[in-house]
Design goal:
Length: 948
């Protein structure tokens, strides 16, 4: 007997599987519930039901039914299939319930609906007495109404039974009415990474061998993933139909689902069921993809489309009616229906559009549809469309221009002009935030013969898109190679490609590549002193950054200052952003903010979505690292929304990492963890090392806020002393590492870690924020209190000069702690009060608690915070002993004793506690004896049990 094949793996559904798992776990414990998975066809509803059944086995009894279109009018058909395994339990039910269910199992007349519904509830409850039960109902849109109502009735009443009920219904045409009151579990389309993994599995099945994930790339994979629109079934159908020529790359990728595909047939059947007028409307929208309400109104007057046809088209789910526009539901629907449409149907759709597009601004579209009726190249109309596209491009209307460029290219017969127009279409599609469309157009460029300069421009654009929307590590060689070929034709374009390559290298953590790219830029023809201002700015930025990477900070400062000066005169958003980065490396906070804000404004005026996203990404990251209050950064939130909308995965990861880091600085564990959870997806497999490094820094910042310096040091120092994986991030995190190491008694290691940061701070003397952090590190490392006070005082002055409010508060806290330990409580209280005011202003809860504790330890009577005054919950044990207390509820203990008790309960030895608090082990022992006496305990074990 052949072994059963393993079930297909499910990708991209971790959240949904977790929700279903929770439902099953609660049902197993006697807290039943129900979920309705409502999603489009092909998104994997049945796969989730199957996964739920596998997870439920063997502890659950699994009952199932599936709606069948031909049985939708047969009463009790769905219940009959579901309840047949429970026929033996029906005899145990009351007579009224037995009779009602007799109509289901044996045929005949049934009772009233309520009696039947109650009988189903009772029967499932009896089954659950013998063990938990999972009821799964698939395709419930085709269940007969009586069965659906009965199952939904039961699903709304299983809260106290060991019953889990799962329904799956096809969306897009309205949810089945019978599912009212049942919690929905939406199933969105798969993201790009999950789609590629489905394709990996599907190709492995088709080829009979495992396919490595790294091989799922190139034009073929991109086209399949883009065409499938996140539907696993579509990906599998496309993969199964790929020809050897398509797999080898000698034949273009598929442009639609195969003819026998389930989804293609479904869309075709929906279309054919429409009345003739509605079909004309659907084809008209397919031909233009987007039609406004005024155009639809004109079509209803001239094209034989009536109000009933509009309602039918809306109900079909093939189109979207959004505001004053009608669009195709998605590319999968359009490609399927357009592939099945006859030549006559397509020509009729184009002719109708040519007739109803009468507004002046619709002239390019009217020209296109008039030419499309014949389907032949038309140089005159192509030139008119190109002129219209250029006009829209110059006005920054990239969402319009890319489409007109594409249509001009379609009507162009000569290869060279056609390639230029396709390349313009790709560039404008990218500028409008349509990364997938831009990639699709670039794939068309590859299919047309073109010269070296044109091919280099296409590869450069492909690399730029990859850096922002894909993998920066993969973008580096693309951009570097494109620059090498562009250098023979256009030095400025080559320099721009190298600048983006350097950015991608930094994002991927490959600073060896960054240095090599900077050297290439300096060797370009015309890269001398007479270079154009934009080129001079890029060269100064690249050279200065490379020099800083090599550790020659004073030499780097000169180049970076030149970039900042040139940035003040620049109008190009990318150049302004690189100037802002140069200012940040110099530690010039005012120039950084000014240039970053100018870059964002320039990109918005130009209508360039990727450049705006990049400028927002840099602005947010720099703002977070300049020591300002770590509240919500507007640039990050704006950038995150834009990056997600434009599917700029690398930018999304960077924004999430920055938001997580700012929350970590603030000690906001919940917010930081939420961003880190979402960060895992975008960084997975994309080589976004910079985002991963900042994401790794965030938990260390949380540890410092929660007074866990040992944990913070462990996070910031990977095995072998490697630290964070991104060298600049590692350098920026040194002040945190020094603080963590000093508070765990490892001063020598802290001094060693500080040395590189000191050289950086000394090499950029006009950076007050950086100098302040260096002084703070020196204060922490100082052996004598007088020396520490001198460094702390200077650090506070520099923080104020830099406007770094939050860093100022942290330095005040550290200074106050040092003064208190030096038996100068009066002086300590002044600094601790200042720290507390700032922490409270910015709602930094853990830091506020630490400042309050320090003030109490310094002898100040301070009103407890609301959280501290709330009585601890009763946790009395069954043995009648004292109830354990929380770590903040120590009763008569002083703040110092409470702190020591908490550390001891966490397992720290007397020597470790002494090193952290700058006390002697003998003093710690004395405090612990007093703690034991006041709490009425005798050992650390009892202390650990008491404090939770």
């Amino acid at each position: 007997m052949a072994p059963e094949s393993p079930p297909p793996r499910i990708h991209g559904r971790a959240r949904e599987l977790g929700v279903i798992g929770t439902l099953l776990d609660r049902a197993r414990d006697g807290h039943g519930g129900a979920l309705a998975i409502v999603a489009d066809a092909g998104t994997g509803r049945t796969a989730l039901l199957d996964a739920a059944a596998r997870r439920a086995a063997p502890g659950f009894r699994v009952l199932g039914t599936t709606g069948v279109r031909r049985e939708a009018a047969v009463p009790y058909a769905g219940l009959h299939r579901l309840l047949r395994p429970l026929a033996g339990l029906i005899a145990e039910l009351p007579a009224a319930h037995r009779d009602a269910l007799g109509a289901v199992t044996r045929g005949g007349r049934g009772g009233t609906p309520f009696v039947l519904y109650a009988a189903v509830c009772e029967l499932l409850g009896r089954a659950a007495e013998h063990g938990p039960v999972l009821c799964r109902a698939d395709d419930v849109q085709w269940l007969d109404p009586v069965s659906l109502e009965a199952l939904a009735f039961a699903a709304r009443r299983v809260q106290h039974d060991r019953i889990a009920m799962l329904f799956a219904a096809r969306g897009g045409q309205g949810d089945p009415d019978g599912l009212a009151g049942i919690r929905r579990l939406p199933l969105p389309p798969l993201d790009e990474d999950a789609s590629r993994r489905v394709l990996q599995d599907a190709l492995g099945e088709a080829m009979g061998c495992a396919v490595p994930y790294a091989a799922i790339g190139g034009d073929l994979a991109e086209e399949v993933v883009d065409l499938a629109c996140g539907r696993p079934l579509a990906i599998r159908d496309l993969a199964a139909a790929l020809t050897p020529g398509q797999l080898s790359g000698t034949v273009p990728p598929p442009r639609s689902l195969p003819a026998g595909s389930t989804l293609r047939s479904l869309n075709r059947h929906r279309y054919l069921r429409l009345p003739p007028g509605a079909r004309r409307l659907v084809l008209m929208v397919l031909a233009d993809e987007w039609v406004n309400a005024a155009t639809v109104a004109r079509a209803t007057r001239t094209g034989g489309i009536g109000p009933a046809d509009l309602d039918a088209a809306r109900a079909s789910g093939l189109l979207r009616f959004e505001g004053d526009a009608v669009t195709v539901r998605n590319r999968l629907v359009r490609s399927s229906l357009w592939a099945d449409a006859s030549r006559e149907e397509r020509q009729a759709a184009h002719a109708l559009l040519a007739e109803v597009l009468v507004q002046e601004w619709q002239a390019p579209a009217r020209l296109w549809h008039r030419a499309a009726v014949t389907g032949e190249p038309d140089p005159r109309i192509a030139d008119e469309l190109a002129a219209a596209a250029r006009k829209a491009q110059e006005a920054g209307r990239y969402a319009d221009s890319w489409r007109v460029w594409q249509r001009a290219a379609t009507l162009t017969g000569e290869d060279g002009a056609r390639t230029d127009r396709l390349l313009s279409a790709a560039g404008d599609a990218w500028a409008s935030g349509r990364s997938r469309r831009a990639r699709s157009l670039l794939r068309q460029v590859r299919q047309v013969a073109c010269g070296e300069a044109c091919a280099a421009r296409a590869d450069g654009l492909r690399g730029e898109i990859e850096a922002a929307a894909g993998s920066p590590a993969a973008a580096v060689p693309m951009l570097r190679d494109a620059a090498e070929r562009l250098a023979r034709h256009d030095t400025e374009a080559a320099l721009g490609a190298l600048a983006w390559a350097a950015e991608a290298a930094d994002a991927s953590g490959d600073h060896g590549a960054y240095l090599e790219i900077a050297d290439r830029a300096a060797a370009l023809p015309g890269a001398g002193s007479d270079a154009a201002p934009r080129s001079a700015l890029l060269l100064a930025h690249l050279t200065g950054t490379a020099t800083a990477i090599r550790g020659r900070y004073p030499a780097a400062a000169g180049h970076l200052r030149r970039a900042v000066l040139l940035g003040a005169e620049a109008t190009d958003p990318a150049a302004q952003t690189w100037a802002a980065l140069s200012a940040f490396m110099l530690g010039d906070g005012a120039a950084t903010r000014s240039l970053a804000a100018a870059a964002v404004a320039s990109a918005r005026r130009a209508g360039n979505a990727p450049l705006e996203s990049y400028a927002l990404m840099v602005a947010g990251r720099c703002e977070a690292l300049l020591g300002h209050p770590p509240g919500p950064i507007a640039a990050c939130h704006d950038g995150l929304r834009l990056a997600r909308a434009a599917q700029l995965h690398a930018h999304t990861a960077e924004q999430l990492a920055t938001l997580a880091l700012t929350a970590g600085f603030n000690g906001d564990d919940t917010t930081a963890q939420g961003h880190l959870d979402r960060l895992t997806g975008p960084t997975g497999g994309r080589g976004i090392t910079r985002a991963a490094a900042f994401g790794s820094w965030a938990p260390a910042a949380l540890d410092l806020a929660a007074d866990r310096p040992a944990d913070a040091a462990a996070r910031l120092r990977l095995p072998g002393g490697a630290g964070l994986a991104h060298p600049p991030a590692r350098l920026l995190a040194v002040p945190h590492l020094v603080e963590a190491l000093v508070h765990t008694g490892r001063r020598e290691q802290a001094a060693e870690a500080f040395e590189h940061y000191r050289r950086w701070a000394d090499g950029t003397p006009r950076a007050p924020g950086r100098a302040a952090l260096a002084r703070r590190c020196q204060a922490l490392l100082a052996a004598r209190d007088a020396e520490a006070a001198e460094h702390f005082t200077e650090a506070l002055r520099l923080h104020e000069a830099a406007g770094a409010v939050f860093d100022l508060a942290r330095t005040e806290l550290l200074f106050g702690h040092r003064l208190r330990r030096g038996r100068r409580p009066r002086a300590a209280r002044e600094h601790l009060r200042a720290a507390l005011r700032i922490f409270e202003r910015y709602d930094a809860v853990p830091w506020t608690a630490r400042a309050r504790a320090e003030l109490r330890a310094a002898g100040e009577t301070i009103a407890p915070a609301a959280a501290e005054t709330a009585p601890p919950p009763s946790r009395a044990g069954t043995d009648g002993g004292a109830a354990p207390v929380t770590a903040d509820g120590f009763g008569e203990l002083t703040a110092q004793q409470a702190h020591i008790a908490r550390l001891a309960a966490e397992g720290a030895t007397n020597r470790e506690i002494a090193a952290r608090l700058l006390l002697s082990p003998r003093t710690i022992d004395h405090h612990l004896r007093n703690v034991f006496t006041r709490l009425g305990i005798r050992s650390r074990v009892e202390l650990a049990r008491l404090i939770r």
